[in-house]
Amino acid sequence: MDVLEELKVFYSGFSGLKGYIGSTENGALIPYFAVRKTERPVIIAQYAIHAREYVTAYLGMMQAQDFKKRGERGTVYFVPAVNPDGIAEALYGDKMYKANANMVDLNVNFDAKWGEGAENVRIKSSANFIGEFPFSESETRALRDFTLSVMPDMTLSYHSKGEEIYWEFYQTGSARERDYKIASAVSAATGYPVKSAGNSVGGYKDWCVEKLKIPALTIEVGNDRLSHPIGKEHAEEIFAQNRDVMKILTEIL
After folding, report:
1. Which of 145, 157, 209, 225 is the most exposed place for a label (fewest CB within 10 A)?
2. pLDDT level of residue 118 (50, 70, 90 thresholds)
3. Model pLDDT for residues 162-173, shown as the tens digit of each residue
4. Strand 154-160 to strand 216-221: parallel, antiparallel, or no bridges (unpaired)?
5. Model pTM greater than 0.85?
6. DSSP the chain
7. Residue 12, exposed/middle/buried by CB under 10 A (0-12, 13-18, 19+)?
């Protein structure tokens, strides 16, 4: 079974709150799973917004099951595969593919300094194309609308690779101190260093920080020595490094 098939099986067997945040440009449903221990704090964790990074979808399923068993407070919404159309292309076509079915890089399609990134491109491509306008794609609109309906206290975006944590997006004052403290706690749990993303804009994390004024992290998993796409055989090791993230965050928020 490939990761998309495993996700369907996981959805069928998941006994908690579940549903779909919306659908892709090709009409595929985008599932979510919620684990609720207490009403607040609320976290949204999204995975595999970049097609070739589908190892993070395995991580999302593993974290959801683990938090059901170990979490003590808070509510976490897990969205393991934001970009199933792109994942299918990475599995059975161009294995280095990052974009969605429209060749838009979903993680530069959010309305947060959209189009100002150093690596942005303005023509359709397997990576870095910003789209015709912010939220031009079904997937980014679905994630935006779901986020606004939930109004989380923070969000996590799982990517691969590099084993690094990004947290900044022009925060100042107490918000900057708060967000760095949260990033540092996740760094201590995972062993991943806290880094600056430089001139990277238009991502889900960026939009959450700028527009919702909440802490948001991008966590890059998988050793940089590994080649894209990172396979399922590395998922257990990645999960072990990230196993405590949800528990820690729901305790400190």
Report:
1. 225
2. confident
3. 999 999 999 999
4. parallel
5. yes
6. --HHHHHHHHHHH--SEEEEEEE-TT--EEEEEEEESSS-SEEEEEE-SSGGGTHHHHHHHHHHHHHHHH--S-EEEEE--S-HHHHHHHHHS-TT--S-TTS--GGG-SSSSTT--TT-BSS--SS-B--SSTT-SHHHHHHHHHHHHH--SEEEEEEESSSEEE--SS--HHHHHHHHHHHHHHHHHH-PPEE---S--SSHHHHIIIII---EEEEEES-TTSPSSPPGGGHHHHHHHHTTHHHHHHHH-
7. exposed
Q: Three-state SS string across 1-43, please?
A: CCHHHHHHHHHHHCCCEEEEEEECCCCCEEEEEEEECCCCCEE
The tokens describing 186, both together, are 């996740």
Q: pLDDT above 90 covers what percent of the chain?
A: 95
- Mean pLDDT across 214-229: 97
